[in-house]
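Entry for the shared binder. Reason: the reviewer on the internal report wants the predicted structure included alongside the sequence.
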Amino acid sequence: MANLYKKDSPFQVYISFKKYLDVLEHIRYNDRLEYRVNYAESLIESTRNFKELREGFQDTALLEKYEDLIRLLLADLFPTGLTKNEIKAASIPLSNITFNYTERFQDILKDAGKDFEIELRNISDNEFYVFCCCLILQSYFKKDIKSTIPFYYDIPNKQGIMKHYKITVNSDFTEIIPTEDAKIPSDDTLDMLLENLDDFKLWKKYFPSQSWILKGFTIISLVDCTSEVALSDLKSSMIEIDPEDLNPNENLTEIFKSYFDVSELNFGLMTFNKKEQKLDKLPIYESLLTNHILDFWINAFDEETRKSTFNNLNHNSKPVVVSNVNNLDENIKLLPSFSILKDNNVNSFMVIPIMKDGELLAIMEFTSPIAGSFNGLKLKKLEFFTDMVLFSLNRFYFEKNYQIEAIIQREYTTIHDSVVWKFRNEAEKYFTASLGKKIYTLKQIAFKNLTPLFGVSDIRSSSEKRFNLMLQDLNQQIEWLNEILTLTNSDSEKFVLALDVFENEINNEIKADTEQRFQRLLREEIHPFLQGKLEVRTSREIKAKIKDYFSHIFSTTDLFYHHRKNLDDSITLVNRKLADMLDESQVKAQEIFPHYYERFKSDGVEHNLYIGSTIAPELHYTSKVVHKLRYWQLKTICKMELEFQSFKKYLPVQLDIASLIFVYNEKIDIRFRMDEKRFDVDGAYNSYYEIIKKRLDKAHVKDSAERITAPGKITIVYFGMENQKEYLDYISKLQKKGVLQHDIEFLKVEDLQGITGLLALRVSFTPPQE
């Protein structure tokens, strides 16, 4: 079976003129004008012997075979009087197969060259498939989904300049019909699909490949919108600094070629350094920008002339346009000499100072080897672009300063960058006051009405493990000492007796100060005794054992530390890995909405987020921000847990973590504590939140000895059913992605001191694939 689409789709496509012939039938039997009736009848009769035109066909060779008949049939839709003006053709819906062109469309395709193949712009295979499914929803299921994705053709002209055409489509003469293999989803399923537009596999499940028939043809009309598209491209392509990807946009010059309709064009740009009164190149764009005239300004002028030039530009910022350098006015001293321009093959150019509030920000140049490329009209066209250049340069300076500030924050202070603006405001007020020799008292830095998010990935039973490993270390140390002391003379008997007492105490009734008293015995008596044995005549065997013993003690504590060190190393590795993942994920969370973020490492990693309009007052803040960040938090903890499961087997001591999220709806305030150099919740009312956080760690399921947290599971603690519904939705999304299992537990949390009514959800993580 022929496939008229290059891409996979839910359609079997047939070219058919049935619906248009039905229109002619209606005219034939209902129109009152005789000439219209006769005209329609003659067209119908002319196609009577060609049933495939009505029934549909897939052999595109028939389009050429019936070319004259199709042109006659569609004459009303393609008026002869408009053929030289309109860019119009008949087409198979959403395909690159077009026919029955107007003369202007034919000329455009001819200029593009015989090897040019018309293609839709910027639509992936998966997007194309889902869009076809949306057409079925609109046409067959009558869903009002308003899918208005704009489509464009990019077609080069004779000079090689890329022209952009927006496509409008008339699909009145198409129909969509289900085959026997088609599935007819329910309304609930259709709504579910529309909520998952990016899930290509899900759409294909309900709309299998070629399970529907698309029959007919469309009329496409093209509108030249090259300038508009070029402007749009320029908005996303102007100069910027991306610290994660320091790659310049290589299409910048090509976009300018389309915008100015100049086939050979060079673009140059340098920013102005006000402090040093000089032009600065943009390093990452240096290989793409061609600064013929600006390079001359950097290299040819002496310092005094250069400063005078830029001072003049600040007062007289008019652009310079030279259509033909052969007519160059030699009296324009700011420009290079005629010979320099000719040496660089510059025959037409524009130089445009970029100003803001009367100050020079940068200078642009456009040059071309083709005389007449630039003129006053092209300069006028640049007016539509000036605001965009200003925006781009402002963004450039902002991002530059932001990165500098980020370096300062990262290297010199711990103040989180989302709140540093408030510290800067106070610092500026203090600085300004000091300049005027005035006294200014720094105000407290506080943020009010914030929504908190708290999460923790706690290393389970770490205290118990540490205690047991401490016993192993102490018993091993006593065993080594007993072995050494029994080899020495009777002077060691009192030490052996003392060690027996400590061994019995450690293994039966250990006390709070047992370890400290044992350390004191070692430091004050046993270790000096053993050191003395190394300095007198003692057998080689004893000396070797004593040296071996001292090589195993931890010098700071005088204790064996092997087993506990393995545990501490394991905890450090886990904390570092989880904290790094959390910090890395935080970069994306800040893009949702700037917020204050802090995390702490102990036996596990806990984190706090504080979100609200007072942290970023210039941005639009809604409750949706909180929902997005809550979902981000859940996804991130799941990712951390799965990563932990994949590397835990490599730890020196096997550990488990238990993850918890606490959902709190009340608003709280935070204040920067100058004494501790960190933020903390502010006020007695807000401390209730901190109390709950601290008590949740060891909380149990109500009427049970079972902890609410468990290894391999995420526990979400909350107060009301509204939060339950919200998190069940998040969990459902992660279950569909295979991150969480389908074993949700609904728990009640035991009453804590002053805290009642807490509920919890608990669900297992899906183990990573081996």
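Summary line for the report: The two ends are 43 Å apart (CA to CA).
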